[in-house]
């Protein structure tokens, strides 16, 4: 999360939009994102030019030709407001929409992008503000850019409707660290939104497998990273544009982001991916006629949170892994559909972990209680012991303010402990169900009708409190009453 001076500068740019007549929050974010993307294209070209000077090799697939240098951020920002407005509106914006359109799937997401900044003065103020803003971010810091996006998106007044809650960045990063994606993975988010999970996975690969991917002479590995590794579906074209630009600005040349209703009959993909990271919509419902029939064989329901679990099982290859956020109702709902999907995970797949999160994680957008399910697709069972963790703190206050707490203190932040324990589950076998994390045998889960709620298995240890004997308590009360009476008598004497 960004704070301090950077946050104030974002707020100032947002204020420029509003006072300049652009008042729809989603429109502001779109226009803000387009300009960030245009700035990012110039930065990418600068990096390619620098690399070309070092290696002596010509730039492949340059974003700007020599004749287009006036379209670069570093050039047009020096113009007066009228000329800048003309260049951006008539030349820069059309160029942005056609970046690598001959070879890139990305360009189709920008086909319907519209430049709506109404005046030269507003454009000049926003461009100056973005320049000042980015100068405060650490150079080439991808995390900082991601945090900037997160803060921008937090300004969406419509967030939280229809069960679509944006996942906090630190929760996304925790899930990615738990799953440890590799350069060989093909990753999917079937409700990708702004592509937060995919960006975090890309960052993990960049940090932990840099030499293997980026310094490799194997073109196949680099092409897999740029063109095939990151896959997302969403129904919202605006979110797809923002998500695709987010991924490109994080170094993914041509992410596979598609406009697709993941649950509909039009989605015919199956057994395609090795890793799924997702936070699907919670509150949606669909008619049976709209849902892919393959999903209904797993759980006959209209509830999207259950249908998405069935979808994920279908999308994964055998051996594919998943970390997915679900509302608590999925864990212990009593309907046949709820029990069927839990039975599917326990009996037919390998359910590995249930991490129960506190209800404040999604505040201020929602107070819903959630959990993370981690499982591997086997289609042949394999669940023996399921690891449960009772997360009580995520590093931020659990009220609407979500104030940053002491990240190194266990009482304030359980996330490091969760990651450490999950990576060494053998030690967890020694822990008892009275502790914060523990194992539950699959047979015990079956005996409890596949209930995955942590409270049904966690034992509460009651501290014994010893009280004085009743006779002693009564005597003490009488003594106190005597003192009160004597004090009242002395007070009355003073008044008389």
Protein model, in words:
The chain has 19 helices and nine strands. The protein has 496 residues and is an alpha/beta fold. It has three domains: 4-144, Ferritin (Up-down Bundle), CATH 1.20.1260; 159-456, 3-Layer(aba) Sandwich (Rossmann fold); 466-496. The chain has a nine-stranded mixed β-sheet, with helices on both faces.
What is the element string, with H for helices and E for strands?
HHHHHHHEHHHEHEEHHEHHEEEHHEHH
Kindly estimate the percentage of residues that lie in beta strands according to DSSP.
Answer: 5-15%
The biggest beta sheet reads: 9 strands, mixed
Query: How many separate helices?
Result: 19
Per CATH, what is the topology of the largest domain?
Rossmann fold
Q: If you average the pLDDT, what whole number results?
A: 87
The total count of strands amounts to 9
The CATH superfamily label of the largest domain reads: Vaccinia Virus protein VP39
Distance between the termini: 67 Å
Radius of gyration: 28 Å
Q: Level of helix content?
A: 40-55%
List the helices and strands and how they pair.
Elements: H1 4-19, H2 25-55, H3 73-76, H4 81-97, H5 120-135, H6 142-153, H7 169-179, E1 187-189, H8 196-208, H9 210-214, H10 219-228, E2 230-234, H11 237-249, E3 256-259, E4 273-278, H12 293-296, H13 304-315, E5 316-327, H14 328-332, H15 336-348, E6 350-357, E7 370-376, E8 385-390, H16 415-422, H17 425-428, E9 437-441, H18 442-447, H19 470-495
Parallel strand pairs: 1-2, 1-4, 2-3, 4-5, 6-8
Antiparallel strand pairs: 5-7, 6-7, 8-9
Helix pairs in contact: 1-5, 2-11, 4-5, 7-8, 7-16
């Amino acid at each position: 999360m960004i704070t301090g001076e950077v946050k104030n500068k974002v707020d100032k740019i947002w204020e420029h939009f509003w006072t300049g007549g652009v008042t729809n929050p989603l429109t502001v974010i779109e226009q803000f994102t387009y300009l960030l993307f245009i700035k990012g294209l110039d930065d990418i070209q600068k990096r390619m030019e620098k690399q070309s000077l070092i290696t002596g090799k010509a730039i492949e697939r340059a974003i700007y030709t020599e004749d287009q240098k006036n379209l670069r951020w570093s050039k047009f920002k020096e113009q007066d407001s009228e000329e800048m407005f003309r260049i951006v509106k008539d030349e820069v914006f059309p160029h942005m929409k056609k970046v690598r359109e001959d070879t890139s799937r990305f360009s189709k997401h920008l086909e319907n992008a519209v430049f709506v900044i109404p005046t030269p003065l507003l454009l000049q103020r926003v461009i100056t503000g973005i320049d000042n803003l980015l100068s405060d971010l650490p150079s080439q810091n991808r995390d900082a850019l991601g945090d900037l996006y997160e803060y921008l998106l937090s300004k969406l007044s419509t967030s939280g409707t229809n069960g679509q809650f944006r996942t906090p960045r630190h929760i996304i990063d925790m899930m990615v660290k738990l799953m440890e994606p590799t350069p060989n993975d093909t990753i999917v988010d079937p409700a990708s939104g702004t592509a937060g999970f995919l960006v975090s996975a890309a960052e993990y690969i960049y940090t932990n497998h840099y030499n293997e991917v980026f310094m490799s002479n194997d073109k196949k590995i680099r092409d897999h990273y740029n063109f095939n590794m990151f896959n997302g579906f969403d129904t919202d074209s605006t979110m797809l544009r923002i998500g695709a630009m987010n991924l490109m600005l994080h170094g993914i040349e041509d992410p596979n982001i598609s406009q697709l209703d993941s649950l509909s009959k039009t989605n015919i993909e199956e057994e395609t991916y090795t890793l799924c990271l997702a936070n699907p919509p919670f509150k949606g419902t669909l008619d049976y006629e709209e849902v892919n029939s393959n999903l209904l064989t797993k759980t006959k329901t209209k509830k999207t949170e259950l249908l998405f679990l069935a979808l994920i099982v279908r999308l994964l290859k055998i051996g594919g892994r998943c970390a997915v956020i679900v509302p608590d109702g999925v864990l212990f709902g009593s309907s046949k559909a709820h029990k069927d999907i839990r039975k599917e995970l326990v009996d037919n797949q390998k359910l590995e972990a249930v991490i129960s999160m506190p209800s404040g994680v999604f505040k201020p957008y929602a107070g819903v209680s959630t959990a993370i399910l981690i499982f591997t697709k086997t289609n042949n069972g394999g669940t023996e012991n399921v690891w449960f963790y009772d997360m009580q703190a995520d590093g931020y206050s659990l009220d609407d303010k979500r104030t940053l707490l002491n990240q190194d203190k266990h009482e304030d932040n359980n996330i490091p402990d969760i990651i450490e324990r999950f990576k060494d589950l053998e030690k967890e076998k020694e822990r008892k169900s009275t502790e914060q994390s523990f194992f539950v045998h699959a047979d015990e889960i079956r005996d409890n009708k596949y209930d995955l709620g942590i409270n049904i298995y966690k034992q509460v240890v009651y501290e014994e409190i010893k009280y004085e004997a009743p006779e002693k308590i009564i005597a003490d009360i009488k003594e106190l009453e005597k003192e009160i009476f004597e004090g009242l008598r002395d007070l009355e004497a003073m008044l008389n």
